[in-house]
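Ligand: NSS. Inputs:
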Amino acid sequence: MTGYTSVIDVLGKLDEGEKARIRGWVYRLRRLGGKVFIVLRDYSGIIQCVLDGETASRLEEEVSRVDIEASVIVEGVVRRDKRAPGGKELKVMDLKVVGESHNFPIKGGEGIDYLLDNRHLWIRSRRLTSVFKVKHYLLEGLRDYFNSNGWWEVTPPILTMSAVEGGATLFPVDFFGKKAFLSQSAQFYLETLIFSLEKVWSITTSFRAERSRTRRHLYEYTHLEAEAAWYGMEDMMRVVEEMVKAGIRRVLEKSSGDLEFIGRDVSILENVVSTRFPVITYDEAVQILQSKGVSIKWGEDFGADEERVLTKEFEVPVFVTMFPKKIKSFYMKISEENPELVYGFDLLAPEGYGEIVGGSVREDSYDKLLSRIVEEGLNPEDYNWYLDLRRYGSVPHSGFGLGVERMVMWVAGLDHIRDATPYPRFRDRLYP
Ligand code: NSS
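Predicted complex:
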């Protein structure tokens, strides 16, 4: 026989008595009264493969080389079995070990530090496999949204000379004797591109030297950003809502089995895609928090704790808008009604998850932007090229950034962001 069948196709497409050849890794192994039970794992799932006593002794040599996480090829006949996971198993006729595996370091029950040291092996776990499939379909849905709506995908740099989101979280890099930084955000580069392409977006890695270790901060994360000429705040919030829903819809279509495996209640997400996202102002958010007994004063920024309290009140993402300018970045446009406020918006994921998107209308007046730069104690020299955008054909424009791992964390219902990315970086561990 030629070719290989994936586990999902054996379980879903083949009938009792049909032949199959599967390749994968040994997930579980049991020897019982001469029989050998191998639960085989491939990218698509697991299937039980059984060697009866006769086959096991005929293939004794190969059987003796089988161990947990060895890579193997099995050939056999499909059998229905109610007790087997997936309702079918493979009666093995032939077995070949491709790569042996002696004493696989992860046996179950290990602590988190040990697992992080062995992330390159832990990554084979079914749970992480499911999370990365969710992430794949989420990204696919988000990309499709932009591709279907007239946006240009662009590729901004990661090595930069200036801060977008403040100097405190910059990672310095020695760039041939000059000090450069790893990008916190592609925003300023996207802003330069709207003067030709008008609607642009990108996925880049962003870096933040966050001071505190939290469940929702990474030092290195996947940043999806978009920027559009002529767009005001409502226009951009509509894009964010449609994009988020498009991403979730794709996950529900293609990956609901993975969500269930992870233990996520899918009905919460089904409700999200069919419900308008509520919009509240910063003022209203502060009032809600105060009414919940949180000690926050007007003018203070929300941290993870405040966002948790606030978003436990909601079943779908909620926009918070019109922030005090003091707690937001210098590039946000000042409100025409109240000069203490800026046209900024955050999208907070429900169920306690908090901020997944930060966006705003950008200040498009040269004079106002310059005075905000000075007011924040920044050096206008560093932002000369950024100011040029307001010197030559300035237009009203808006944009936002989505933290992809933040969104995965919420969509998959993870309690820590580290599992939303294959290799989370930690201060005391850059390995593997
Ligand atoms: O700092 S942000 O709120 N906004 C910006 O960087 C803008 N310059 C983006 C833009 O308008 N083009 O970051 C945007 C999002 C934020 O809402 C989070 O979802 C995510 O990026 N983010 C992070 N995710 C994981 N870990 C860390 N440390 C992190 N910081 C921000």
